[in-house]
Write a structure and sequence with these properties.
Elements (H helix, E strand, L loop, with lengths): L3 E2 L9 E2 L5 H19 L6 H19 L8 H31 L6 H12 L6 H21 L10 H25 L4 H29 L15 H10 L6 H25 L6 H9 L8 H18 L7 H6 L2 E3 L2 H4 L11 E3 L8 H10 L2 H11 L4 H8 L12 H17 L6 H25 L5 H12 L3 H12 L7 H20 L6 H11 L4 H8 L18
Parallel strand pairs: 3-4
Antiparallel strand pairs: 1-2
Helix pairs in contact: 1-2, 1-3, 2-3, 4-5, 4-6, 5-7, 6-7, 9-10, 9-18, 10-18, 11-15, 15-17, 15-18, 17-21, 18-19, 18-21, 19-20, 21-23
């Protein structure tokens, strides 16, 4: 194959020949280009941003599709497919973004002109102060007219989800406009002279209108109200295809329900061992009462982290490098953050939930109950080692360019798989510790059911909250926080179901390779991490030593049916 020139229009870029691992070099360049665009265009729904991403992806698609596929190494072939899948998914996302903005546009007719101001600033385009002031004044009039035109009981009243989405966009535009104004203010005396009053008036109008959209039109007068934005079945199917999940949404709901039944049976056994008959709710309630006193949660989490590391090392389940063993750290979660995520978060560090002295008495008790010893022991290993921290440590060191291909099924599936492995290996020593692990497994099962039910239009946010309380055993405030986190728009619609579905994929792949004698447990886990982030169906081909045909990866029914 002749050398490949990257983005031929730019003669400053290097060329690469058909040596081994060509794709990592190409994708490292692409990733740098893409990160540059993402740091340049920060506002959602920017037409310039969409155009720039489409142009970049088209240029790089030409480069990648111009390669001699059959001459590529197996790893390069995997990257070839991963890149194609990435740009196809991004085009669907951009098209969906256009559709979502079209829904909001009657509510935010001023959005694109204001987004254009920030885009122009980032392009360092010359700004003429008087026309800029005129633009602010025109936007002010459009905001005022939009507020008058839309009322909760009007003939054109929008869906609550659309109004809330528009309100969040107005908040973001207002923040960007403040940065735009601060950038020029003081450095250009004429700019300040022309724009200071129009900007102040527009800033106040945007603040008032965002509140109008979220509270009056969306019905979220209470800031704790959950306003969801379901994507619909077609979007779910597209997202599942992009993640190479060969199941329909309804099939995944059925899988979630079957897994919940297994959890319920195990919880009843634990309740019997606690002397509570088969009353699984009573077993959960007893477990919730066993929490550490104020001030001791960080030390308890540290001890749990060390215990989990020693457990997996003593059983030769995965390699824990010395700097991974000592590199993690602990932070405490703020009361405000606990309204959205009442439990622990992980990654480079573990963020620990526990009451603070600023919380109301009832909130303190609920936070302690929700972060009891049993639940915490089942969480720390998920967030640190062998879960997300070890995963993040490896991602920095093995094929880091593949973080481009992020999928929650790989990310959350790895950590959930370890919950299953530790269960098999006897990690829970007491009935209470079994209850803690089973509570979280039930929670992951419920996430499949309620997140898909919501996005299919079959469950309301309140029904999702009720399900977590009645079928899993959550504290009600914690259940509301979980649902709020799931549906407020910060997460991929598949994110919540990706925990257990991804975990089942990793577990099935482990069984396939370890039970056949092709790999040891440690060998499998180390090899899985070295491939870095991607749909697990492609990890399967790589670990099995198969070369992926140009036609693509065959569907994988990982549940065996």
């Amino acid at each position: 194959m002749s050398p490949v020139t990257l983005m031929p229009a730019d003669t400053s870029l290097p060329t690469f020949s058909s040596t081994n691992d060509l794709m990592p070099a190409l994708l490292t360049h692409y990733g740098a280009d893409r990160r540059g665009l993402d740091s340049h265009y920060v506002l959602p729904y920017s037409p310039r941003r969409r155009k720039a991403i489409r142009s970049l992806n088209a240029e790089w698609r030409t480069v990648v599709e111009g390669l001699d596929y059959e001459a590529l190494t197996p790893e390069d072939k995997a990257d070839w497919h991963l890149f194609r899948n990435l740009v196809d998914a991004e085009e669907r996302n951009l098209t969906e973004e256009e559709g979502r903005f079209a829904e909001m546009e009657p509510l935010v007719p001023f959005a694109h002109p204001l987004i254009a101001l920030e885009d122009a600033r980032r392009q360092v385009e010359f700004i003429d102060p008087q026309p800029a002031a005129d633009a602010l004044d025109r936007a002010l009039k459009l905001v005022q007219e939009a507020k008058k035109a839309h009322s909760p009981d009007g003939p054109d009243s929008p869906r609550p989800a659309v109004a809330y989405r528009a309100g969040r966009l107005v908040d973001r535009i207002r923040e960007a406009l403040a940065e735009w104004f601060a950038f020029y203010k003081g450095y250009d005396p004429l700019f300040s002279w022309w724009t200071e009053r129009p900007h102040a008036a527009l800033n106040q109008a945007l603040e008032d209108y965002a509140k109008h959209l979220k509270e009056r039109l969306a019905g979220a007068e209470d800031p704790d109200t959950v306003i969801g934005d379901p994507v619909g079945r077609d979007a779910l199917v597209d997202l599942l295809r992009a993640n190479m999940i060969a199941y329909a949404p309804e099939e995944l709901v059925a899988i979630g329900r079957r897994q919940m039944e297994w959890c319920a049976a195990e919880l009843r056994r634990a309740a019997v061992d606690l002397g509570l008959g088969e009353d699984w709710r009573a077993a959960i309630e007893r477990t919730k009462l066993d929490h550490v006193p104020p001030g001791e949660q960080p030390r308890y989490v540290r001890d749990l982290a060390v215990e989990a590391i020693e457990f997996v090392e003593s059983r030769d389940l995965v390699t824990v490098p010395p700097y991974a063993r000592t590199g993690w750290r602990i932070d405490m979660m703020s009361p405000e953050a606990q309204k959205v995520n009442p439990f622990f978060l992980g990654g480079p560090k573990i963020i620990v939930s526990y009451p603070t002295d600023t919380m109301e008495h009832a909130q303190k008790l609920m936070s302690m109950r929700g972060n009891n010893r049993g639940f915490s022991r089942a969480t720390v290993q998920h967030e640190l080692i062998p879960g997300h921290y070890l995963q993040a440590y490896s991602q920095e060191r093995f094929r880091p360019y593949r973080r481009l291909f992020y999928t929650p099924f790989w990310t959350e599936g790895w950590a959930l798989h370890w919950e299953m492995v530790l269960w098999e290996q006897g990690f829970p020593r007491t009935p209470e510790e079994r209850v803690g692990m089973l509570f979280w497994r039930s929670h992951r099962c419920a996430r499949i059911v309620f997140s898909l039910g919501f996005h299919l239009g079959e469950m309301t946010p309140q029904e999702c909250i009720d399900m977590l309380v009645e079928e899993v055993g959550h504290e009600r405030d914690n259940a509301a926080a979980e649902v709020r986190r799931s549906f407020r728009g910060d997460y991929d619609p598949l994110y919540q179901l990706a925990y257990l579905i991804g975990g089942l994929q990793v577990h099935a792949l482990r069984d396939e390779l370890v039970d056949s004698g092709r790999m040891t447990q440690r060998g499998f886990h180390d090899a899985f991490l070295r491939e870095n982030n991607m749909p697990i169906a492609i990890v399967r081909e790589l670990l099995a030593g198969r070369s992926i045909p140009k036609a693509g990866v065959a569907e994988w029914r990982f549940m065996g049916e």
